[in-house]
Design a protein that fits this description.
Layout lengths: L1 H55 L5 H32 L15 E4 L3 E4 L4 E5 L2 E6 L4 H6 L7 E4 L2 E8 L1
Parallel strand pairs: 2-4
Antiparallel strand pairs: 1-2, 1-6, 3-4, 5-6
């Protein structure tokens, strides 16, 4: 009786460690995507700053003021996008990859009969180790439909019934 229990414990530990590795790699993949986007936006913002400096050297009157205003509007848009990406990065940092989720919640990887979802940040479709995973915010409609559910529970999204096959 003791041997089967030890085997079960070993399998659970191995499975938990494997799921920890998967979630850790998934977090790294999403983090790398976010960092790449942040880098691109930071460079674009710096270019707009340079454009603004060179525009200020111009003396074309109203045309000069219009050009400056357009550049400043573009900077504001880039700044808002950058703030949003930094918020997403901060959300990812708070997810503990070692936490084994028993129901759908923040940080859970949810496999359904339709696809796999990572309840984290609204990044969308992510190619991870050759698999498509949907990184979704907990406030998204699909996440709201499945929050709190467990393995074998069903939920409906876009008139499609989905069954939860696994949660990690």
């Amino acid at each position: 009786m003791v041997i089967p229990l030890l085997i079960i414990i070993a399998v659970l530990c191995t499975s938990g460690k494997r799921m920890f590795m998967i979630k850790t790699r998934l977090l790294k993949t999403i983090s790398d995507i976010l960092e790449g986007k942040i880098t691109v936006l930071t460079k674009a913002f710096a270019e707009k700053r340079e454009d603004l400096l060179s525009e200020s050297k111009s003396t074309a009157g109203d045309k000069h003021e219009t050009g400056r205003a357009m550049i400043q509007l573009e900077q504001e848009k880039l700044s808002l996008q950058l703030i949003q990406l930094q918020k997403q990065r901060n959300i990812l940092i708070r997810i503990n990859p070692e936490k084994q989720c028993k129901n759908v919640q923040m940080g859970a990887v949810v496999e359904t009969n339709i696809g796999t979802y990572f309840i984290s940040t609204g990044l969308g479709q992510v190619n991870h180790d050759g698999n498509l995973i949907f990184a979704i915010a907990p406030t998204s409609p699909v996440a709201q439909a499945m929050l709190g559910k467990s393995v074998n529970d069903t939920f409906e999204f876009n008139s499609t019934l989905q069954t939860i096959k696994a949660i990690t």
